[in-house]
Write a structure and sequence with these properties.
Layout (H helix, E strand, L loop, with lengths): L13 H7 L32 E3 H6 L2 H18 L1 E5 L5 H15 L3 H5 L10 E5 L13 E8 L11 H26 L6 H6 L5 E9 L11 E4 L5 E6 L5 E5 L2 E4 L7 E5 L1 H6 L9 E3 L7 E9 L5 E2 L3 H7 L7 E2 H10 L6 H5 L6
Parallel strand pairs: 1-2
Antiparallel strand pairs: 2-10, 3-4, 4-5, 5-12, 6-11, 7-10, 7-12, 8-9, 8-11, 13-14
Helix pairs in contact: 3-6, 4-6
The chain binds 2-oxoglutaric acid and fe (ii) ion (FE2).
Keywords: Iron, Metal-binding, Oxidoreductase
Pfam families: 2OG-FeII_Oxy (PF03171), DIOX_N (PF14226)
Family: Belongs to the iron/ascorbate-dependent oxidoreductase family.
């Protein structure tokens, strides 16, 4: 089948493109992504049974013994996997559904309404767009998104009706869960819990909520929704609408992660790898698209405060006799990461301490 010519419009929503029927059988050539044949997955590469499961209720309401078992399990999950599933969390199913529904209504607005939030500046508090970084990327991705900063200052689009209230409640609930998980992860590194505030200024944590929309794609084997990347923060809490698409790299192999009802996937981000002196790995992941269904995800990224200079915890450096990374002010890290094309982990790799 002949490929369509590259699509030159700089910000053309994938949703409208998918619905326009302009590309019913083949997609524009600038959406073609390169994948090695060993990166192709087989259906049997679903591995949910093996992914570590963290029972949140035991972390906050269990006996001392139960809590310490969960923390032990978290240590293994963060070191060997970089991600885990969270079950028995306190976020109501009703709120999870309402959040997905609110984002769906956001994307269902007219292009004119959504385009109000197109913004070039990487740290603008509300940014709607397509692909990853429309102005920088040569390859385009089959994804529309809206990124909203919700803490320490809360922002929200005014429309659609009810979006703001749902976002506010969802942001507060995921932040609470994120803070509990962060404290537990800190403990799993055998660091003093009081030091977490000094190191990361969690009270003013920088929290972003990203709504991702991946409409049906006529050639899903050629396109990607999101290329391989790691997340910039400390933790990402991912909610999905029940459609497959998330893949993570584990032991050098891409694996499918099936979305399960009422379960969050949590992954370690770059700042956690940094502060843990490289003990905990910020995992590479990507999003596939499919030919039939619209996939949606809501990623909540919890980071340190903008002003925190994030560096490996001194106790870990001393214990390991090795400094794995240079420190950097989180805001500077973000500015660079968000303004550049998403190339695996390029900004993060610049902070790695090398011996030459
Ligand atoms: O849609 C997904 O499953 C992944 C989303 C993601 O990785 C992100 O927004 O950073
Ligand atoms: Fe991500």
């Amino acid at each position: 089948m002949e490929a369509q010519a590259p699509l030159s419009l700089s910000n053309h929503a994938i949703k409208e493109l998918s619905e326009s029927q302009a590309f019913t059988s083949s997609i524009p050539s600038n959406f073609h992504t390169f994948r090695n044949s060993d990166e192709e997955l087989r259906p049997e590469d679903f591995i949910n049974e093996e992914i570590p499961i963290i029972d949140f209720s035991l972390l906050i309401g269990g006996t001392a013994m139960e809590r310490s078992e969960v923390i032990h399990h978290l240590c293994m999950a963060c070191r060997e996997w970089g991600f885990f599933m969270v079950v028995n969390h306190e976020i109501p199913k009703r709120l999870m559904d309402e959040m997905l529904d609110a984002f769906e209504k956001f994307f269902n607005q007219s292009e004119e309404e959504k385009n109000e939030y197109i913004n070039k500046y990487a740290l603008h508090p509300i940014r709607y767009g397509t692909s990853v970084n429309t102005h920088e990327d040569k390859i385009r991705y089959w994804r529309d998104y809206v990124k909203i900063f919700v803490n320490p200052e809360f922002h929200s689009p005014v429309k659609p009706f009810g979006f703001r209230n749902t976002l506010f409640e969802y942001a507060a609930s995921t932040r609470k869960m994120g803070e509990e998980l962060l404290k537990a992860i800190w403990e799993s590194l055998e660091l003093n819990t009081e030091d977490i505030e000094v190191a990361l200024d969690i009270k003013s944590c920088f929290q972003i909520i990203i709504g991702n929309l991946y409409p049906p794609c006529p050639q899903p084997e050629l396109a990607l929704g999101l290329p391989p990347h790691s997340d910039h923060g400390l933790l990402t809490i991912l909610l999905q609408n029940g459609i497959n698409g998330l893949q993570v790299k584990h032991n050098n192999k891409w694996l499918h992660i099936k979305p399960l009802p009422n379960v969050f996937i949590v992954n370690i981000g770059d700042q956690m790898e940094l502060v843990s002196n490289g003990r905990y790995k910020s995992v590479l992941h990507r999003a596939e698209v499919n030919g039939k269904n619209t996939r949606m995800s809501v990623a909540t990224i919890i980071g340190p405060s903008h002003e925190a200079i994030v560096a490996p915890a001194p106790q870990l450096v001393e214990h390991d006799h090795h400094l794995a990374f240079h420190g950097m002010r989180f805001k500077d890290f973000l500015e660079q990461q968000q303004a550049n094309p998403l190339k695996q982990r390029s900004i993060f790799d610049l902070l790695r301490v090398t011996n030459d």
